[in-house]
Amino acid sequence: MLQKARLERQKKMRDAKRFFDEGKKAYKDGNPVAAEASLYLATQNAPRNQEYKTLFEEVQYEARQVKVRQEIGEAETAEGYGAYAKALHHYQKAMEYGEEHDLIPAPIFARTSILLQREDGGAQAAARMMEKAARKDTDNPDYHFRLADLYEAEGLGLRAERERKIAKRLQNQK
């Protein structure tokens, strides 16, 4: 029984090393997405190996950046063809990968807001996205005007009025 456990542990360590080497090579070759997958498996097979963890975390951030760019590109292509539901899906996937790491630019939140309202008809979800756009680009009056309209649709008159004032002030500064 002890022998079997030792052999299993040795196999896991060999697998971890193999996945680590594959991940390192993929990263060196400029493919952080493939590197992330291999390094993830390395860390699962050798969870205490700090070298594996450190490289995995570094690569994971770069892989997220790549995934965000890919999803945004897919969304923009779909939107260009009028496939709005598909575009919305890709924008939302981009946010899954990048929002936590501040990788999503304000215009993507704004586009998602517009598509949410168009596809779902929901002012509340669209307003949350437009709020994010306005927070990221505080000097854009268009975001505040759109947010005011969304608040109005939600029956939030005071918030709508506040956003319109902000938008007009910003517009006059330009």
Q: What would you say about this model in short?
A:
The protein has helices at residues 2-28, 32-45, 50-80, 84-98, 106-120, 123-136, 141-154, 157-173. By secondary structure, it is mainly alpha-helical.
Protein described:
The chain is an all-alpha fold. It contains eight helices and no strands. The chain has helices at 2-28, 32-45, 50-80, 84-98, 106-120, 123-136, 141-154, 157-173. The radius of gyration is 23 Å and the shape is elongated. The protein starts with a helix and ends with a helix. The model has no long low-confidence stretch (mean pLDDT 92).
Q: Topology, pairings included?
A:
Layout: H1 2-28, H2 32-45, H3 50-80, H4 84-98, H5 106-120, H6 123-136, H7 141-154, H8 157-173
Tell me the span between the first and last alpha carbons: 76 Å
Radius of gyration: 23 Å
**Secondary structure tally: strands:** 0
- Share of helix, binned: over 70%
Which regions have little confidence, pLDDT < 50, spanning 5+ residues?
none
H/E element string? Answer: HHHHHHHH
The geometry reads as elongated
Counting DSSP H or I runs of 4 or more residues, the number of helices is: 8
The helix-and-strand class reads: mainly alpha
- The oligomerization state is single chain
How much of the sequence lies in strands comes to under 5%
Sheet with the most strands? none
- Average pLDDT number: 92
